[in-house]
């Protein structure tokens, strides 16, 4: 059920990957609970009691990135929008500022500490004394500020901006190109010092958590990139070929689109990495199961599916490790365009998919429960909202979503004037209706899913066809959707790897560039603003706002929930120290090897 995801890089969470342990002297630990809807139970950690082998640690930890397309190769978190880039550059640490607890709440001890001041509406970020980049440069207060310039610049290629950043004093003027700097940043000890103060219109509840949409949770090496125009930064040598990092490993070699290799970063402030070499290689979804079965890799990152779990669950030398995913699959509808002059999404009342009844009918026509059961193997289940259940407090379990209801689908279409003329329904004005469905090339199981969607839509008389008659390569798919205006794709199957703080402004905000369906309404803006209003410091009020938003989005059917899932991976028994709990902020440094070769 997993489609390749766009990622909100602001989540800045290290423990989103998977590794594990070797030797027969091992035991599982941590919680082994199944989230709502899943029938499989997995643990998020694996304890290996075998001794660490220093000889093995001098070898290579071999990681596979399950992906059907080359990764884009954008190492800068402010510019990256693809989950695959996040995966293949993960040993560099994502340049994360903060440590978090098991609930992603920011705690002291990371690259920097955070202090929020509600009385003065400020956030003070203080870097640790030994904070350095992997080339030995010190991390500075200006490095904390500069990603905001990259994200908010009028000519940026970043997809991360949303209206929440306008809460920073001076950001709106900078984003509009009316100011050269962002006035809401001050430096008590100068730009080369260790302290950055951000001045907000108001401090919000979400700022307590990493990945919130008001503060960026990663640094940018200003001195290293300052001479590169922001518009050209994503294509620069500093980002594409010779990037620097703040995490436990530094990049040793990059084969464009194919692989990354890593060695310990001697300037890392935290726990010294134990493994001397890491390789991450892209492996297609059609080959990933055989590669693991052949013991070519220690573990897998990326888009593993229920069909993969069914193939790999019986392997004796691997453990299946996982936790509820910070992601969901969805159906998007093209409802307008992004106005590059105003920097806002605009709904087009004449858009092919503008009729809400048409969208609802398409969602009710799908048999997502059956698809999840057939292809998910207990790892996926039908989604009912646009907030994953991993966010237990905010998830609205009472929402029904769009269970199969062919009768209701037909009634909605009839009511809206989409009458049948022969085999297919026509538009209310009597003109022919052809709807183009965008879907990414994947496994044979995914191809079968897409055909099932088409068959279900055909059952209610809608002439829905794949764009160009076939599935789309991932990068081509997203480049089409991310164009300010496009008319090739009317409805699509996509996925979000969401932030560790669930405010959805970056995806569905009026000025969010990630809002690829371009749905905009005053009510939507109001509900999202209420999630972080002053009243939202009352937790019950904030929970209510989140649940109301989920109900509203289902009512509008501008984005349809598809499936929730486990984030899981097969991990070889020779890896020790694996734990994907968010509180494990030294994920990569805690890994070691007990055997010289993949077992």
From TrEMBL:
Cellular component annotations (GO), alphabetically ordered: ATP-binding cassette (ABC) transporter complex; periplasmic space
One Pfam family matching this protein: SBP_bac_5
Signal peptide (residue range): 1-20
One Gene Ontology term from the biological process aspect of the record: peptide transport
CDD domains assigned to the protein according to its UniProt record, in alphabetical order: PBP2_Lactococcal_OppA_like (cd08510)
Keywords: Signal
PROSITE patterns tied to this protein: PROKAR_LIPOPROTEIN (PS51257)
Gene3D superfamilies: Dipeptide-binding Protein, Domain 3, Periplasmic binding protein-like II
Record-level Gene Ontology MF annotations: peptide transmembrane transporter activity
Keyword Signal: yes
Residue span, Solute-binding protein family domain: 119-510
Record protein name field: Peptide ABC transporter substrate-binding protein
Organism of provenance: Levilactobacillus spicheri
Name of encoding gene: oppA_8
